[in-house]
Amino acid sequence: MAKRKFRPQPGKHQPVPSQQVKVDLNQAETMKCEYCGNVIFMKATVIKRISALMSPTGQEALMPIEVYSCGSCGQVPKSIMSDVGLEPPKEEKSPIEGIL
Q1: What is the pLDDT of residue 11?
Q2: Run of H or E residues at 96
Q3: Close Cβ partners of 58 (under 8 Å, ≥ 6 residues apart)
Q4: Is the confidence at residue 62, as pLDDT, over 90?
Q5: Which of 72, 76, 99, 98 lies closest to 89 in space, CA to CA?
Q6: pLDDT recorded at residue 14
Q7: pTM for the complete prediction?
Q8: Distance in Å from the first CA to the final CA of the chain
Q9: Dihedral through CA 31, CA 35, CA 38, CA 39, nearest 10?
Q10: Inter-CA distances, 35 with 2, 9, 15, 20, Å
Q11: If you average pLDDT over every residue of the chain, what do you get?
């Protein structure tokens, strides 16, 4: 059996040069925690359980979704919570507020 020689065709299978976009980060808005005002966030994971009926494999699956939580108070911003299909936590009232 004869061996095939790979002959790349001109213009095909050549890497596309990446274009670097220059962004002035001084012009970008710094996201702040809507609960405490902190500007440092940490990676966190929300795990979604996918039923066998919805799963492409026909078996139940767990899907990790990376989100960011505040490095100070631990809260996940409401906008991120809604993006992953979760409701933001309801604000708890102080027991004293109900009495007054």
Answers
A1: 59
A2: helix 95-99
A3: 52
A4: yes
A5: 76
A6: 61
A7: 0.59
A8: 91
A9: -10
A10: 69, 57, 45, 35
A11: 81
